[in-house]
Structure of GDSL esterase/lipase:
Amino acid sequence: MATVPEARVVLLRVLLAAAAFACAAAAGAAAAAGSSSKVPAIYVFGDSTADVGTNNYLPGSAVPRANFPHNGVDFPTARPTGRFSNGYNGVDFLAMNMGFKRSPPPFLAVANKTNKQVFRGLLGVNFASAGSGVLDTTGSSIIPLSQQVEQFAAVQRNISARVSQGAAGAVLSRSLFLVSTGGNDLFAFFARNSTPSDADKRRFVANLVSLYQNHVKALYVLGARKFAVIDVPPIGCCPYPRSLHPLGACIDVLNELARGFNKGVRDAMRGLGSSCQGLKYSVGSSHAVVQSIMKHPQRLGFKDTTNACCGSGRFNGKSECTPNATLCGNRHEYLFWDLLHPTHAASKVAAAAIYNGSLHFAAPVNFRQLVEDQC
């Protein structure tokens, strides 16, 4: 969030939530608090698809960053923020649909703050780190998913220390836990073996999904109950993989890995929904959204679904979006912003489809239905 309500307002919300453990009473408490948001808070976990500036706070030259132009050229302040986008990313748009101004701030931006900043954790925190994955071995000098969960545990302890544990639990159980990760793990696997056997792919994906499930379970133990999961898009069709193909086509192996991982995550979440009392979820399919844009670009307002708007080389996919990179003028007509990430316009379309769309784009319910489920 860009603004922090006064501590007494936040305390009122928490106390109201603590007094309203029943579903209907909890809904009434939120209304009495006068909040315009549809959930008390959003907690975000993941990679560059969800990072809103975490990596700006990490040391070292190996850290993936987007804190320089042309990134952020269409952000409200026309400045780079650490988002791998010309403007907002998908998490920002999902947060807007829930009544927030944009994604909550990065954990590292508020981790060492006290007083009002502690209460800010009650309105949400973004832990996502570009370059990270489900596996601790994916990426370097970044914050893997396991460490992001540990950071949330610190936030949960801070909240419980400032208010009663019951009050904290009531707020967290109604908050949304958004997870967007997995693509970097698949890229790393492909980099090690570009022609894996079917058995290799199955083993890797099964292990990845198992670890993913363990991270979700850890968040559940810490009080999370509503999970909004975003799957992996057809990453083999991004400008960078296309630039590697002799004919400029999509890399099939990467897309097969994405489909296998996505199915595994859907099955895992279904199992957790059955075995973990009170756990509710929705899997939003960025994969289906990107496929729809690529199949019917004109219908959705896009003209270029293969080249990056900002970059260099073949498909503009050979380098990151740097100040010296080639920049397109009609950014709203591009699916891809840089070698791997969507534009502001594509993220807006994806968020709308996942939040309000049919079962094709989010299941077993869409994000709006998950958010509005008060029981």
